[in-house]
Amino acid sequence: MAALGSEHSIVVTDEGVTLSWGGGSSGRLGHDRQSSLLGFLSNACEYTPRVINRLEGVKVKTVAAGLLHSAYVDENGNVFVFGENVVGKFSFGSDNSSGPSMLSDLPMSEEIACGGYHTCVVTGNRELYTWGSIENGCVGIGCTDVARSPQRVEGPFVRQLVSKVRASYWNLMCTPIIFSAEAERMSSHALLFYFVLCV
Q1: Are 161 and 152 within 8 A, CB to CB?
Q2: Considering the chain, what is the average pLDDT of its residues?
Q3: DSSP for residue 1
Q4: Tens-place pLDDT, residues 44-67
Q5: Fewest CB within 10 angstroms: 10, 18, 158, 164, which?
Q6: Where are the alpha helices (DSSP H) in 47-194?
Q7: Torsion sign over Cα 40, 41, 43, 47
Q8: Spans of the RCC repeats (predicted)?
Q9: Any alpha helices (H) in 21-79, and if so which ranges?
Q10: 114: burial class by Cβ within 10 Å (0-12, 13-18, 19+)?
Q11: Upper half-sphere CA count for residue 133 (Cβ side, 13 Å)
């Protein structure tokens, strides 16, 4: 499986090894900070795929890459994030995290997607949670400030269980689970996607 961010990529091999490469600013590659020759902390570019050492032995179920952050769900449904936190994409206090940090305030999760400055999760109960920048309403929860912790999306946008979620720079969309009786009443083009919010 693979995830492509704006300037970085993450791949999980069939053997379960997780690698990342590309632009390493903000810790979005998941490699611990290393000292440069001059003694400064650096998160330089990785020009070839490099193993994320802190994920060795972890079975990654799904992975996502955003603008300056990345995230994954492990086999137990735990959500981990790393990278830039300046607009509350994570729900912990530090500005950046160069290695994966677990979010403890989410139910067991199945799917994850990273947008430009927001993150979306589909839980094991098929509910949609979002957090991060609220610019243009991209997290779908109706707040007017940064959503610093995961919030369940409710209201008219999500009336059904959610199957999949995808995010891009300023929007997200999800696929509802359509039960067969309802699917027979709907035309095939109506089954594709519900746009939760879109710029």
Answers
A1: no
A2: 73
A3: -
A4: 688 899 999 888 888 999 999 988
A5: 164
A6: 180-185
A7: positive
A8: 16-76, 77-125
A9: none
A10: buried
A11: 22
What CA–CA distance (Å, rounded) separates 192 from 8? 29
Alpha-carbon span 121 to 127, nearest angstrom: 8
Listed residue (35, 36, 30, 26) closest to 17, CA to CA: 30
The count of residues in the chain is: 199
78-84 CB contacts, 8 Å cutoff, 24+ apart: 78/102, 78/103, 78/108, 78/109, 79/103, 79/106, 79/109, 79/112, 79/121, 81/119, 82/27, 82/28, 82/30, 83/26, 83/27, 83/28, 83/30, 84/25, 84/26, 84/27, 84/28
**Tokens representing 5?**
């961010």
State how far the Cα of 55 lies from the Cα of 94, in Å rounded to an integer.
20
CA distance 110 to 178: 18
- pLDDT-derived band at 136 (thresholds 50, 70, 90) equals low
By the 10 Å C-beta count (0-12 exposed, 13-18 middle, 19+ buried), 124 is classed as: exposed
Q: By three-state DSSP, how is residue 42 classified?
A: strand
